[in-house]
Amino acid sequence: MTDTRTITVTVNGKSYTKDVPTRLLLSDFLRHELMLTGTHVGCEHGVCGACTVLLDGRSARSCLTLAVQANGHEVTTIEGIAPEGSNELHPLQQAFQDHHGLQCGYCTPGMLTTLIELLRDNPTPSESEVRSAISGNLCRCTGYQGIVEATLDAARKMRA
Amino acid sequence: MSERLVGKAIKRLEDPALLTGRGRFVDDFHLPGTLHAAFVRSEEAHAKINGIDKSAAVALPGVHAVLTLADLPKRFHAMRMHGMPNPHVTQNIMPYVLAKDEVCHVGEPIAIVIADDRYIAEDAAALVMVDYEPLPTAGDCRAAMAPGAALAHMNSPDNIAAMLHFGYGDIDAAFKNAAHVVKENLFMHRGLGHSIEGRAVLAHYDTFADHLTVYTASQGPHAAKRAIVGMLDWDEERVRVVALDVGGGFGPKMSFYAEQIVTVLASLHVNRPVKWIEDRREHFNSATQERDQYWDVEMAMDAQGKILGLRIAMIHDKGAFMPHGTILPHISCTTVPGPFIIPAYKIDCSVVLTNKPPVAPVRGAGRPQAVFAMERIMDAAAAKLGLDRVEIRRRNLIPAEAMPYSIGLTFRDGKPLTYDSGDYPQLFDKVTKAADYAGFAKRQEAALKNGRYIGIGIASAIEGTGLGPFEGATVRIGPSGTVTLLTGAADQGQGHATTVAQICAEQFGIRPDDVRVVTADTAAIANGTGTFASRQAVNAGSSTHLAAIQVREKVLAIASHILEAAPSDIELADGNAIVKGTDKKISFRDIARAVTGQSGFALPKGIEPGLEATRYFTPEQAAYASGNHIAEVEVDIETGGVKVTNYWISHDCGVVINPLLVEGQVQGGLAHGIGNALLEWMHYDADTCQPLTTTLADYLLPTADAVPKALISHVVSPSPLNPLGVKGAGEGGTIPAPAAIISAIEHALTPFGVHLTQAPVPPHHLVELINKGRRKNSGLLA
Ligand code: FES
Ligand code: FES
Fold first, then answer.
1. Which end of chain B is more exposed for a tag (fewer CB within 10 A), N or C?
2. Pocket-forming residues, ligand 1, beta carbon under 6 Å
3. Ligand 2 centre and the CA of A109: distance in Å?
4. Which of A127, A140, A144, A149 to mutate to test the interface with B (most CBs of B within 10 A)?
5. CATH class name, domain B136-396
6. How many helices (H) and strands (E) does chain A have?
């Protein structure tokens, strides 16, 4: 019953070739095959946004994507956001700490990937644009305010 | 003392790891040889089980075992999950760890499948055939109270689990002497916890060490360990429970669940690590949750609008089982008086069993319902007497001079309900000024001219926080010179590590991130209670403070000995003890080494080995935090959509340790309250008790565009009950929010004469009421 395929996926700049069951979710592939456990799973039905990664630069729900669909594509996860080889955080990550944009941190990977896409496409978002960008990402802890403030602050700093 | 850190908005120590994907949540652990579990769960809300056929599941390649109750060790065949004994409870029914011959709610675990991976485990779970004989269900808790109603448990005499009665004063006289009596019939539905991380267990029975380690997403790892040790009848040293990063709790992760012990038993059965990760549907159907309360409230007032007495009958839906006994309805019953002087009070509460998942605290824990009841009846009284809603409340507030103020009830901590400190009139002034309450009528009038319906509402709450029995902290400086802090205070996002590091670092003149904090590991500290009832700032905070002072004193004593200076002349800074005004100093590392001694040599006289202290703080009673909310809303009268446009909170949680974290708790709590006011509704089919909202697309959580920024003002009334003067802050953002928002909606819809008696108020409900008002206004309806 377990039909498998060989796939090659580039994750955070590194290429991986693996045999995977065709029904394996991309989220499980990242978390349990590549041990990149920063991507979180909150609902597995596409609503909470915790599992959001960038697939060829565009936000995608890794719980609604099969690993085989990522074959030949590039994935960026939370582990790939901070500048490589340094202890520094990405300006958005730093702003999350500065503005208390996370509590339990479980929604955070999906928030960050979603907002990185936003800031790339729209470096000067308004508050309501930030809110609408993350309206598909649920956070049960923060009440969103810290996340919104962090994003606006990061946008300012990234423009400077 | 060195620089004050308590009170500062220190950035969180927890963040860097969580921001870079280096969190350590249970499902992030990959122990070699781990097998994966899925549960077979009841598809029926109430049924007899006549048989279970697991042959097809067992035959599936990759399946290691399928265990039903009969397959578990004998001692589990008659053992039920532990309830909370209480003399008022007549039916303290708890489930077996797996269903025996009866299931009482959809989602009740019946069997566990252990397989190579979760995919196979779920395939196999679907192959387990359960022969159900459906039984009538008890759905609506009001109907379930009636004699002859369908029974939630087939062998019960009825569905009443407990009757609670509270009161004081002469209630009959209050109503006899009343100038006015107001009545309301209210319904409040509360929803689920819905931490974004579900429950999770990784049980690792190490055959070599004969030792069990359980990683679990829990608010109370020590409580979980006690439960596991008790159920297995093992000694404590063979079991360790750890809760590293936990992705939100909000109450449900405080319960100890059948899934936890069964995953442990599975690991013992296969002699390998076994992991179970809850999925969202399981959270809907088997995590503890809150639910319905029906309130009949009557209030007696004098001619000036002063309260004379309050008489209430309340029905509480407890679901199928009794986890945490009756503490939830107990809290509801004793929260009603809030900041008001109520000379006479009587409440009778029926706790009713139904065929829905078991009910236990969710953030707010029965208080939002009580506040809703109190504030709705105050609004009704204001309307009846023609008084402004704020004015009538002011007339009834407990004055600051009356503190400490004894209500006349017993709180759920078993102690008299006595507010330790607070200034409720000041909270009122602050929030009404901040919101320009006085100017709202003009704003409303102007909006109405433009066809916009805006309204304002107010509600307040007093919350018993920092409950006992205790929490502990060990502060230790080892030969590395690092200050280590060990506490049982489990964190699910509150930032406890930062909070306790601040308290600890302050005593040693170091930075908070120099403190190595270990929380929620039973191997780190022997005793612990857990994180609930907004209790850890008080409990873990105070025990950290006491332990840190004790170690600091020892550091000073030894440094004074070595540096030959009086302890009062020594200051601690940057990991050194320094003789003030000199360059004479000794590092913590050398001090720690001095008290370690040399092998075979005696320590100097009077010196005890080690730099270490463990202190357990045991609060004598709850510390009462207080807060006041004002909500401004706009209602779209065509769609019934409600936007919370502005929100003000005045808040008093005593001394604030870290304002960043406290405001984060309040803001996050508000989001939960908005969910309870407008969105979160767990629907069940009325006849079959089948859950109808089992995805986050059906059951709606508040999103970023639904939650405004709470404008928070602080009042600080230090608690006299603990050395830091703190009170809890975890739930004050949630508790009064539904009451304030619903009052604001009603106010916005005054032109339609809308009267709101329930929470949440979904759009279709509002549209119905608006249309009724329209028909009435146009003379179509009498
Ligand atoms: S886990 Fe993918 S959207 Fe929730
Ligand atoms: S920080 Fe906990 S869910 Fe967002």
1. C
2. A 41-44, 46-51, 61, 63
3. 10
4. A140
5. alpha beta
6. 5, 5
What does the alpha-carbon distance between residue B641 and residue B636 come to, in Å, rounded to a whole number? 5
Phi-psi region of B732 (alpha: psi -120 to 50; beta: other; left: phi over 0): alpha
Is residue B198 within 8 Å of B248, Cβ to Cβ? no
* Residue of chain A with shortest Cα separation from B28: A37
| Closest approach of B592 to chain A, Cα-based (Å) | 31
Q: Model confidence over B543-584: pLDDT tens digits? A: 999 999 999 999 999 899 889 999 999 999 989 999 999 999
Q: Which CATH class is domain A91-159?
A: mainly alpha
Question: Could you give the CA distance from residue B512 to residue B527 in angstroms, rounded to a whole number?
Answer: 24
Nearest to B219 by CA among B341, B322, B361: B361
Query: Which chain B residues have a beta carbon less than 8 Å from that of A35?
Result: 30
Q: What is the DSSP string of A113-151?
A: HHHHHHHHH-SS--HHHHHHHTTTS--SSS-SHHHHHHH
Ligand 2 pocket, Cβ-based, cut-off 6 angstroms: A 102-107, 139-142; B 196, 248, 493
- Chain A CB contacts of B733 under 8 Å are 143
- pLDDT reading at B509 higher than 60: yes
pLDDT, tens digit, for every residue of A46-97?
Answer: 999 999 999 999 999 999 999 999 999 999 999 999 988 778 999 999 999 9
pLDDT digits (tens, 9 = 90+) for B626-684: 999 999 999 999 999 999 999 999 999 999 889 999 999 999 999 999 999 999 999 99
CATH topology of domain B468-617: Aldehyde Oxidoreductase; domain 4 (3.30.365)
Which ligand 2 atom is the nearest neighbour of the CA of B493?
2
Is there a contact between A147 and A139 (Cβ–Cβ < 8 Å)? yes
Strands lying side by side in the sheet with B758-759: B160-168, B345-353, B307-319, B292-301, B180-189, B758-759
Give the angle subtended at the CA of B739 by the CAs of B281 and B412, to the nearest 5°: 75
Which one, of A89, A130, A87, lies nearest residue A111 by Cα?
A: A130
Q: Tokens standing for B12?
A: 């969180």
Domains B136-396 and B468-617 share a fold: yes
User: Where residue B85 falls among pLDDT bands split at 50, 70, 90?
Assistant: confident
Ligand 2 centre distance from Cα of residue A150 (Å):
14
Report the sign of the C-alpha dihedral through residues B500, B328, B393, B174, in that order.
Answer: negative
Distance A143 CA to ligand 2 centre (A): 9
Contact between B707 and A98 using a beta-carbon 8 Å cutoff:
no
**Whether the Cβ atoms of residue B292 and residue B332 lie closer than 8 Å to each other:** no
- The Cα of A55 is separated from the nearest Cα of chain B by a number of Å equal to 17
CA of B516 to the centre of ligand 2 (A): 24
CA distance B96 to chain A (A): 28
Tokens of A57: 């630069």
From the list A103, A131, A141, the residue facing B704 with the nearest CB is A131
Q: Return d(Cα B520, Cα B7) in angstroms, integer.
A: 24
CATH of the domain spanning A4-80, picked from 1.50.10.10, 3.30.390.50, 3.10.20.30, 3.30.450.20: 3.10.20.30
Cβ of B245 within 8 Å of Cβ of A39? The answer is: no
Please determine, for residue B122, whether its predicted confidence score (pLDDT) is greater than 80: yes
Residue B445: exposed, middle, or buried by beta-carbon count in 10 A (0-12, 13-18, 19+)?
A: exposed
Q: Are the beta carbons of B667 and A142 separated by less than 8 Å?
A: yes
Measured between CA atoms, the residue of chain A closest to residue B662 is: A100
Query: Are the beta carbons of B701 and B52 closer than 8 angstroms?
Result: no
Domain ranges of chain A: 4-80, 91-159
The verdict on a CB contact (< 8 Å) between A81 and B20 is yes
B506 vs B549: CA distance, rounded Å: 10
Contact B196 A42 (CB under 8 A): yes
